[in-house]
Amino acid sequence: MREYVDFLGRQPPYDELDSADLEALARTVEVEYFAAGAQIVEAGAAPLDHFFVVRTGEVEVIDRGRVVDLLGPGETFGQISVLSGLPPPLAIRASEDTLCYRFPDPRPVLRHPQRLQFGHYGTLVTRERLARSGLVDQAVRAARHQMRPVVWCPADATVGEAASVITEAGQSYALMDRGGAIGIVTDNDFRRAFADGHVDAHSPASVIASFPARSVPAETLVGDAFLTMVESGVHHLVVTGTGDRPVGILRVVDVASAEVRNPLVVRRAIDDATTVEDLAAAAALLPGTWVELYDTGASVMHVAGLMSAVIDAIIRRLVELTDVGADHVPHRTSWLLLGSVARREPLPKSDVDTGLVWEDLPGTDSPARKLQNWAGRVLDNMERCGLPRCADGANATNPLFARSRTDAVAAATSWITNPTQKNALLLSSMIADSRPVSGMSLGRSVSDAMLATTRSREYLSALLRFTTSRRPPVGFVRNFVVEHSGANRGNLDLKAGGLVPIASLGRWIAVVTGDDRGSTLTRLRRGETAALLTADETETLVRAFEYVYGLILGREIEAIKGSTVATTWVAPNQLDTLTRRYLRESFRAVAEVQNRLESEWVARLP
Questions:
Q1: Residue among 119, 62, 120, 127 at smallest CA distance from 90
Q2: Between 20 and 30 A from 231 (CA), which of 239, 253, 343, 400?
Q3: pLDDT per residue over 519-575, tens digit each?
Q4: Cis omega (within 30 of 0) for bond into 212
Q5: What is the 3-state secondary structure (H, E, C) of 155-177?
């Protein structure tokens, strides 16, 4: 059953269940195998009394004979019929040999069945793709269906002549045939060459062209072609037909989308990694993926969610690949993410806070030393993958964050019952922000136990004072409050002053409601539902968080592009007038919400 719990606990919407419900659901699992081509669900048949989760393989969703969707590992089908009591509207067929987990109606066995917020599939697929392949919608089309026409310019053309050819064709590229070798020159090549001052309009275009141009066969799936683009660092691919002759061009802007980029570019490489070196090579794609996602104009919080899933996958794979050696113990373990990464709000330069919990085995020696040795190697490998450990010590090697389940539960509950003990408020806040990426039930049992502990008004009051001590850096009149000395003199910290106060309020809401699921924005909206926040306060905090997060993300993206050191510190006079004004208004609005909560929180308690 442990394998079922760990697998389901990593998949939406099952990752919203607490440990007890997750185990209750896992006890109902039946395993069923379907050969490629097998019909699993008939459209219009009798209402289903069971639904499925794909464990391995892939199934097709069919609408009147047409494949409209592909579902891979972790994705669910049949639930709509089970929950509604209606005939299944679409057919499901195994597209390859597939193993599924089969479940009865989950509502009778779960304490909180409302947490299972299933998505829907159909001819308009809009949900995020974080499964193994991610090849859906345009990504399952062949490159020949997505390509643009070939534009040629003579091999001896000058830069000016090649630019004219591209402009007249209304495209961003032209191909050159140099004795059978096909090269490509793009608008980006022109910009870079002129910026460097190495060429002029009379220079040969061949000196800035790429020979040979990267290419893919016409039947290559768009998703696979996109992976080739990012791994090769190119934005154009030549599509070849018979005799490997060019028949079209595939551009990154035509095929890239938030739904396919993350799974194709990084997740597949992570899944395929067999060594830490392979994994580090896959993780090297992270900075470019942040940039590409941001540049598409996707919602910044959507970008955060996608990249959070990538980081999760890297950590899980690191745990699997890091050698245990002489530190092997029989205890099951759970790795926890803490802080902003746990809330699915990472930034490109975020460090990764981690914790470790292990099961109790009576009659055995404490595995703490061995597990901390192993955790140290995992964190070393994590940094090889470009993910820095917490500089402030919130790491799985620290005894504060590496405990047996019994010890962890006892400590977490004591922080609630005795909030005056040293660091009780800080540490209970960190547990409220924890999220397991392995050993799901074991990891969740700690936060479940803490939140199940009666939270006195003394504790909630102390936690709110701790929460609102993180104030936005805005003065009583008009100016920002900036550092008055040190290396950051005259600057303000956008993360500490803008994101932390709002995230802290979200965490306070999580503790008050006993529900620590989701991101800061999810928690704030849950606070409105529980009447801890008004609708106006919720909207104020949500908009402010999104704005400040987007501001920091934009600055970090520019740092990646310019190969400079990113910082969350900024001098107000470096911001344009509109940004400065909006930032000040956001800070002031957040401070006003903090002030109202400080005086009204008791009356707002559920």
A1: 62
A2: 343
A3: 999 999 999 999 999 999 999 999 999 999 999 999 999 998 888 888 999 888 888
A4: yes
A5: CCCEHHHHHHHHHHHCCCEEEEE
Residue 33 contacts residue 71 (beta carbons within 8 Å): no
Distance separating alpha carbons of residues 59 and 37, to the nearest angstrom: 9
pLDDT tens for 157-182 read: 998 899 889 888 888 899 999 988 99
Biggest alpha carbon–alpha carbon distance for the chain: 82
Helix (H) or strand (E) holding 31: strand 30-34
Residue 473 CA to residue 580 CA, distance in Å, equals 12
Q: Is residue 255 helix, strand or coil?
A: helix
Taking residue 395's Cβ as centre, other Cβ atoms within 10 Å add up to 25
Distances (CA, A) of 27 to 20, 84, 100, 117, 238: 11, 23, 15, 20, 51
Looking at 187-280, which runs of residues are DSSP E strands?
215-217, 236-240, 246-251
Alpha carbon distance 70, 134 (integer Å): 9
Residue 84 DSSP class: H
Identity of the amino acid at 154? P
Cα 162 to Cα 185, 205, 208: the distances in Å are: 8, 7, 11
Contacts 24+ apart (CB under 8 A), 254-258: 254/146, 254/148, 255/138, 255/139, 255/146, 255/222, 255/225, 255/226, 255/229, 256/226, 256/292, 256/296, 257/137, 257/138, 257/296, 258/128, 258/293, 258/296, 258/298, 258/302, 258/303, 258/306
Contact criterion met (CB below 8 Å) for 395 and 354: yes
Q: Tell me the two tokens of residue 117.
A: 């917020």
- 596 touches 527 (CB < 8 A): no
DSSP secondary structure, 543-556, as one string:
HHHHHHHHHHHHHH
